[in-house]
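To fix ideas, we give here one paired sequence and structure record:
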Amino acid sequence: MTGRARRWALPAAGVALVAGLAALLGGRAGGASIVDDPVQRVLVVSLPGLSWSDVEDHDDLPNLEAFVRHAAVGDLSTRIGRRRASTTDAYLSLGAGTRALAPTVDVAVALDPDETYGGVRTADILERRLGRVPDGVAYLAAGAATELNQDGPFGGEPGRLGDLLDEAGVQRAVIANADAAEGFVSDEPPPDGAFARGAATMLMGSDGIVPGGTVARSLLVDDPDAPFGRRLDPPAVLAAFDEAWAGSARRVVLVEASDLSRAAAYGPRATPAQRSALRDDALARSDALLGRLLERVDPARDAVLVLSPVSAGSSPELAVVALSTPEVDGGVLRSSTTRRDGYVQLADVAPTVLRLVGEHEPDEIEGRSFEVSDRPTAGRVAELADEAAAAGFRDSLMPLVVPLVIGALAVLAAATWQRDRLPERAVRALRPAAHVALGVVPATFVASQVPAVVGSTPGYLVAVAVLAVAAGAATWAVDRRRPGLGPIAALGGIVAMFTVDVLLGAPLQVNAVFGYSVAVAGRFAGLGNLAFALFGAAAVLLAALLVDRYGVRCLPAVTGLLVAVVLLEGLPMLGADVGGVLSMVPAFGVCLLLLAGRRPSGRHALALVAAAGLTVLVFAFVDVARPSGQRTHLARLAEHLVDGRWSSFSDSLTRRLQASFGGAEVAAWALVLGLIVVVAAYVVLVGTGRLGPARATRPSAVPPWLTSRPALAAVAGAVVLAGLGLVANDSSIAVPATMLIVIAPIAVLQSQADPREVAA
C-alpha cells in the first residue's frame, strides 16, 4: 500500500464505521403496528386542554384512568409552526394530515341544516357558497380555509381526511358544541362571535360538509352554575352518538367534550379559585361522558382514540393522546415523523384513522400513522407528565441562559480586545476563561438530563457552571501540557459528544437549551437547528486546527471527519436534516479546498451546490429503501421526484424561507442580500489576497495564526455555513448567532497563541 493510500485508509474506515452503525441503527424496528386487521368503527373523543399532569393530579377521573390502563399513550404535540394552535387550527390539522391554519372569517362557524346564521337560513348560505344544499353539518369557512392553506407555510389541504374516508365508503359524524357567550338561551342563535364549533373541521370533506352528527344548540342545556350559563346535555349527546354509531357500515365518529373548551374560554372572567373549580367540574362531567361512550363500544372490533387537540394555556404545547384497539394493550405511542417514543403530532392523527379502518395513508400528507413501542404500564403517565414539565422548564430557561451566554462572550471578547490595558493576572485568565466558555456547550446538554436540577433555575445554572468549569479545566490542562492542543481537545469533545448522541438516538437533545423542546414540535429526533450550528462550527474549526498543527498530511483524516459529520447530520436513520446537509456540504467543501491550498472558484461553488443537492437525494432514496414504518420526510422528497411532483421541493424551500424570514418577498431579499455578502467576502478576503498565507509585511500586532491558510479556511467555512444555515433552516438568525458560542472562544484562544506554541 502506498503512503497516500495509507493516509486515506483510516478516514475511509471511520466513514465506513459511521455508515455501518447508521445501517445497524436503521434496522431497528420503530414500533409495532396499531392494528393487524382493520376495525369496523373508530370513536374519537376530544378532551380539549387536557394534559397528563391533569390526569396525574386529579383523582376523580375514573373512566379516563381505566381507559388509559390498557391503551397506548403519548404526548400529542399541538404546536403549529411557531404559533400556539387555536382549537380550529388544531382540528383543521387533524383533518388535513398536515399542519393547517384557520381563516379569520367565520373561523369556527359550523351549522346544522335547520339553523340560521346572522338571521339567514343555513340552506340559503350553502346555496350561495356551494351551489347546492347537502345534508349534514356545514363548516362555512371551508373555502377560505382551503385558499389560506394553499398559499400558507405548510400546504395543508383542509378536509383531506374526510374526502379519503368518503371515497372509501366510511361514514363520518361529529357531535360537538362549545359555543360561548353570555345572554342567550339554548333555543336562540348565539352572537356571531360566540360560535365555537371548529371540531367539525376534523371530519369534514373539502366542501366543508360532515354528513352525520350535529353541532346544534340542541346539544346544550341551560345551567346557571356552568361557564356562560350552559353545558352539554348528556342525554342529547348520547342520543346523537347512538344514531351516528349504529349500523354495520364502517364509520368514524368524533365526540367533543365541549364543556372543557367552554370552561377555558370563560376562565379569564373568573377569579383563579373559581376558574379552577369550573374546570374541575368540566373535567368531571367530561370523564362521566367518556365512560358512557365507552359503554357503547365493542373492544373486540372497535378502536377508541382519546386526545386533546390543544394544550392548556398554562402548559407547554403537549396534550394527552391515548389509543385502544383490539391488538393494543399498553405501551407508548410514536410515529415516523417524531421517531421518538412517547411523542406524536397533530398531523399523525389523520393517517392513524385511515390505518385503523384499513385505508392507505397518502404519501403527500405530512403525518404518519401512530406506532406502539413497549414500555412498562406502571409510571407511564407520570413519565409523560414529567417530560412535558421538562419541556416547559427548557422554554423558560431560554430567555435567561441565552443572554447570559452572549453577555459572557461579549465580556470575554472585549477583554481580549483591550488586553493591553488589563492587569497581567487578568490577561493570564483569558485563556482558561475561553476554555470554560467552550465547556458551556457540553455542560448545557448534560445538565438538562440531570433530574435533580430540572425545574430549578438556580440549580440548573449552578450545574452548568460546575460542568463548564470542569470541562474547561480539563482542556486547559491539556493545553498547558501540550501547548496548542487544548482547543483541539475542546472542539473534539464537542464533535464527539454530538456524534455519540446522534448514534444513540439524540437523548441529549431533548429539552436542552441548545437542543430542542418537544413542546415546540419543530423536531423530535436527530439534531435541532441550534445543535446543528454548534456541531457544524465545531467541525469546521476542528478541521482547520488539525491541519494547522499537523500539516496537510492529516488532510485525509480531516476529510473523513467532515464526511462523517455530514452522514450523522443527514442519514435518515440519524439526523435526517435536509437544511443541515444543504449547509454543511458547501461549507465543508470550501474549507477543504482552502486547507488544500486551492482557491474556490465559481466552478467550485456550482459543484458544491450540486453535491449538496445530490447528497440530499441520496439520503432520500436511502430512506425510501427502508421499511415504510421507519421512513422520514426524506422519503417523501424522493417519492415526489419519482412521481414527477417537481413543485414539491420548491414549495418546501419557499415555506422554509417563509418560516425563517416571515414572507416570500422578505425571504427573497434576504437571500439576495446573503449572496451579496458571501460574494463580497470572497472578493475581499480571497480575491484581493487579504487573508492568505502569512506574509512578512504583516503587522507584528496581528497574531500570525489569524493570517494563515487554516485561519482563512476556518473563516470561509464558517461564513458559508452561517449564510446557508440562515437560509436553509427555519431558525433564522439564531443559527449564525449560535455558531458564535463556539467561534468566539476559539478566536480568543488563537488570537493569543504564541506562534512557538502553535508550532510545537
Summary: Residues 26 and 573 are 5 Å apart (CA to CA). The chain is about 55% helix and 10% strand. The longest strand covers residues 318-324. Residues 380-417 form the longest helix (38 residues).
